[in-house]
Amino acid sequence: xxxxxxxxxxDISSLGEFGLIDHLTKKIKxxxxxxxxGIGDDAAVLEFDKEHIVVxxxxxxxxxxxxxxxxxxxxxxxxxxxVNLSDVYAMNAMATQITVSIAVSNRFPxxxxxxxxxxxxxxxKMYDVDVIGGDTTSxxxxxxxxxxxxxxxxxxxxxxxxxxxxxxxLVVTGDLGAAYMGLQILEREKEVFKVNPNNQPxxxxxxxxxxxxLKPEARKDIVKLLVDLDVKPTSMIxxxxxxxxEIIHLCKQSDVGCDxxxxxIPLDPQVISTCEEFNIDSTTIALNGGEDYELLMTISxxxxxxxxxxxxxxxxxxxxxxNAGMHLITRAETQIPLxxxxxxxxxxx
Length: 349
Ligand code: ADP
Ligand code: MG
Description:
Elements: H1 16-25, E1 35-37, E2 45-46, E3 52-61, H2 73-89, E4 94-104, H3 110-126, E5 130-138, E6 144-153, E7 169-173, H4 178-195, H5 207-214, H6 220-229, E8 235-238, H7 243-254, E9 256-261, H8 269-278, H9 282-288, E10 295-299, H10 304-307, E11 313-321, E12 326-329, E13 335-337
Helix pairs in contact: 2-3, 4-5
The structure holds adenosine-5'-diphosphate and magnesium ion.
């Protein structure tokens, strides 16, 4: 990894800014029909037909959003693309292009940045998006990675956060809480390693949750699935900050309330067992953990037969009138008001 004191590493200052950009981007090819001009000019040129264009951006800061002591740079590159694409899919759009901007200190040799770009390119291929530009600059200490994603959606298919209606079903994809529990394991192993660097961790029983933390995927498949099922959600959001906080976003923007059923929240067995091991409540983790990158949507009751039994979609509650409030209905059938304790990088915790 980057702390490697290995001698045969290439100092990035030996390449200069343009040499570095050239080196990192020379293999990048574009394939999208809408990309007229990619990397190499003052700006990229795109051409879209009569569709809506969606644009979203995220900034990841070392020490705030990622820790390179357990996050391999290749994974970081992959994840920084995926978290942006997730926002595009949450609009019910398809991603087409990304730009990548990095600020990097000379503590990173060229080989480290090659790893980062290998991850970026792998994600770009996997999700079929063109890398069409970016910016490269220096930083005095850490690494910053900012990705902007562009996508398109047929005007009649765009889904906002504000379309939920009372009686709509609340539906989530995949399962929740795994990325957060994966992080707990990685943090714990980091502490163990500090005390005894020779200790070889046995992570076999945590593979799924660690992968969800280090190599999350965005639900492009769901945007396609919704087309196949002929379902247009009434509202949609991606789960980056925890289920609770995202439900509150949908409710507030749509002017509705909601009942969420604890017993319906989808959890992977590894999340349940790891929560038991850490002696924390798995529902709390699903509600507040974050970084799941699943999609949360509301669907009209009429569409229920179309989604019924689909293994990718779980009905976890339903929307109510605004004055009913937003509640978790526990297994013991008590009502607890939903609170947004979502992971927040501005918190000094
Ligand atoms: P400018 O001086 O106009 O900002 P740059 O020299 O920064 O241009 O960039 C030259 C070309 O390389 C542009 O097409 C830019 O989008 C692209 N580029 C710069 N940095 C990156 C990067 N980190 N990843 C991908 N493309 C990049
Ligand atoms: Mg520039």
